[in-house]
UniProtKB/TrEMBL annotation:
Source species of the chain: Telluria aromaticivorans
Pfam families on file: Ribosomal_L4
Subunit structure: Part of the 50S ribosomal subunit.
Stated family: Belongs to the universal ribosomal protein uL4 family.
Keywords, alphabetical: Ribonucleoprotein, Ribosomal protein, RNA-binding, rRNA-binding
Protein name: Large ribosomal subunit protein uL4
Function: One of the primary rRNA binding proteins, this protein initially binds near the 5'-end of the 23S rRNA. It is important during the early stages of 50S assembly. It makes multiple contacts with different domains of the 23S rRNA in the assembled 50S subunit and ribosome.
InterPro entries: Ribosomal_uL4 (IPR002136), Ribosomal_uL4-like (IPR013005), Ribosomal_uL4_dom_sf (IPR023574)
Basic and acidic residues composition-biased segments: 49-58
Basic residues bias spans: 59-70
Region (Disordered): 44-78
GO MF annotation: an example: rRNA binding
Amino acid sequence: MELQLLNEQGQAGAGVAAADTVFGREYNEALIHQVVVAYAANARSGNRKQKDREEVHHTTKKPWRQKGTGRARAGMSSSPLWRGGGRIFPNSPDENFTHKVNKKMFRAGICSIFSQLAREGRLVVIENLSIDAPKTKLLSQKLQGMGLESVMVITDTIEENLLLASRNLPHVLVVEPKAADPMSLVFYKKVLVTKAALAMIEEMYA
């Protein structure tokens, strides 16, 4: 597999060879879906709390006598059938949302995403990406010069200037290869990988 290579000015050069085991796999939509959903679910933490009938503050007095009123039987006003009563299956912050995906499936899913990005022309390799000062404008101009707006930048080491400049750009994410997650790879329109980071990705997933 050969990927497009840009120099630091964004000009196209000769292609760079990439491992077929990482960037030449078949597209497996079901696997990618499973990996992305599992990643999103595992990042989720419960933040809703509802009360069951034991926790709501109600009197334990029987609302009316058992027989003779013509109405349905009622024991307590905290019953889930009553307005203001407790929930039968309340939401809890301790609820577990995790989905299990084993390492082999996760690695295969990441490789399938990288392969599809390469086929669609959304994966671009650059010699190096750096800026002289931690200025958002400098990074924005550099990326626009390459025709990149919504972009995930994968670099071997994150320079401080690059990290600080990217924080105020809502559609730019700068990460190291080990932090490249399936959700971000799918979300961003382009993925820009430095040549050194490409070698690290091949070493991790080949």
